[in-house]
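Sequence in, structure out. Go.
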Amino acid sequence: MRLQDYDTQTQFQAKVVATKRISPAESPDEVRELVLDVDRGDFVIEVGQSLGVLAPGQSEFGQEKHFRLYSVADVPERLDGGQLRLRVCVKRCSYIDAYSGEEYPGIASNYLCDLRESDTLILTGPYGLAFEVPAEPKANLILIGMGTGIAPFRAFVNHLYRGDTGFQGRVFLFHGARSGLDLLYMNEESDDFAQYYDNSTFQAIRALSSRPSWSQRIDWAAALESRGEELWNMLGESDTYVYVAGLEIIRDELDKVFGKIAGSPEKWARRKAELEAGRRWIELVY
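Output:
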């Protein structure tokens, strides 16, 4: 579904309660978590859904608003006053013009990163429900997130272990980043997942670049193949679900690694098709 196809007619105002950088100061990338309060008692959003942000558009191009989607990064919280408190994770981005070679700041990400406490913004949605809690209480979950793609999984894991879901299954969380400085919610600034490390059903595995200073790609092979046999056995079980979030490039890279784990690309293609047909392989890529 293209961004221009989303319905943005239902709009509501949110207030910035807090904004903090969650990437270490030494990291070249600025990633912030924004805490937003929505003062509308009838507004409901579930873990796994996304919000739309309407940032000021480029007036020189006749664009009044600039629309982008952001996943909810934690379990929504209903306050005593009726407000709904949400958290989103935003990386300050820029892009290179393919024709001029000039670098331009990303409109929505820079708008959000520049917001300060007490500022207001316009939201739309909610949209979709990419990742649902499986009906089987002892299901296996393989969560694979790249960069800020870890945000929906942070909400998902908190929901599984803190909520009244009855979930008793295993969770394998793979977080891909260029270096340890780029890991989100798993660094010195914020290590939310640490509260689950003692749980025998939860494992968090880091997938980093072997040479981050060379802008080397994330080494998914090292992280996934280290548990290759166990993952392959899990993927053969009828109650295993795989949820993937991150840049679109992750799709081809994972197919390559799982093809090796399976023994051949053809064998993996058949297994992945079975998972997709049963809605047990779900991707949220951009």
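Check: Confidence is low (pLDDT under 50) at residues 211-215. The chain has two domains: 3-127, 140-285.
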